[in-house]
Amino acid sequence: MSNKSETEALLEDKAEDLPHILVVDDDARLRTLLQRYLKQNGFRVTTAGDAAQAQARMIGLEFDLLVLDVMMPGISGVEFAKILRQKTSRIPILMLTARAESDDRIAGLETGVDDYLTKPYEPRELVLRIRSILRRAQPPAKKTELRMGPFRFSPERGELTREGKPIRLTSSEVTLLKLLAASLGKPLSRLELTELTGAGLERSIDVQVNRLRRKIEADPKMPIYLQTVRGIGYVLVPD
Questions:
Q1: Phi and psi (nearest 5°) for 58?
Q2: CB-based contact 38:21 (threshold 8 Å)
Q3: Facing residues of 126 across strands?
Q4: Residues 73, 79 contacting (CB under 8 angstroms)
Q5: Residue spans in the chain of domains classed CATH 1.10.10.10
Q6: Which of 75, 139, 85, 83 is CA-nearest to residue 114?
Q7: What is the DSSP letter of 159?
Q8: Is 100 helix (H, G, I), strand (E, B) or coil?
């Protein structure tokens, strides 16, 4: 019984990482089919029958993309998209319609929707378009490489290079640099570094810092990048 619960918990955690799609369409049969198909293709899916239901869902849940039908009772898909954009919502929107006229497509795109698909469509095309929109919506990767004169340190990869050539670091030195890089501008005490690295003795931190200085400082006795903060500990100061 315990094993089953653990498995279920793992599956729930994994599902939380999947892109969350809100499908808004007044056709209950189509909503069910879309929900089933999108789930089979690696998405979490919530559905709504009209704009009012969609707004209620969006109050308590966060979505990565909206699949929105144009022709709905009450507030149309185009009107709903316009409302969202006026509220400065930047949720990506893929609009669906049974009408193929270019005026409808233009009206939808003018409201700020990201893509447009005309019914009937191939379900596989819908999935491909959703994935394409999600890729475009991802923020650019943050540059995490730290510059220290001719040296570059990548906390993500744990790599130190000088003018493109790798500098060998011990695992302890990598850990120490990562900790200091994660706390730029904020000194870390010897005690904190000892506990976080498992060095055992505060003196061990001093030894590792001296070794690192010999690798990244022009003059280890007058450090520019790996500085001592008197009475506190150490701080990393990249360019």
A1: -75, -15
A2: yes
A3: none
A4: no
A5: 146-236
A6: 85
A7: E
A8: coil
pTM for the full predicted model? 0.55
Give yes or no for a contact between 68 and 81, defined as CB atoms under 8 angstroms apart: yes
How far apart (Å, rounded) are the C-alpha atoms in residues 117 and 34?
A: 14
Measure Cα distances from 222 to 4, 91, 124, 226, 227 in Å.
Answer: 59, 51, 62, 10, 9
Q: Is the peptide bond before 120 cis (omega within 30 degrees of 0)?
A: yes
**Torsion angle of alpha carbons 102, 105, 111, 112, nearest 10°?**
-120
Strand partners, 109: none
Neighbours of 187 (CB within 10 A): 17
What 3-state DSSP class applies to 95?
strand
Q: What is the residue type of 221?
A: K
Residues 134-183 pLDDT 10s: 888 776 555 578 899 999 998 888 899 998 899 998 888 888 888 888 88
Identify each DSSP E strand in the chain by its residue range. Answer: 20-24, 44-48, 65-69, 93-97, 115-118, 146-148, 151-154, 159-162, 165-167, 188-189, 226-229, 233-236
What would be the CATH architecture of the domain defined by 146-236? Orthogonal Bundle (1.10)
Query: CB of 71 within 8 A of CB of 47?
Result: no
| DSSP assignment letter at 225 | S
Task: Enumerate the CATH 3.40.50.2300 domain ranges in the chain, comma separated.
Answer: 11-137
Query: Which CATH class for the 11-137 domain?
Result: alpha beta
Residues in the chain: 239
pLDDT tens-digit readout, 226-235: 999 888 889 9
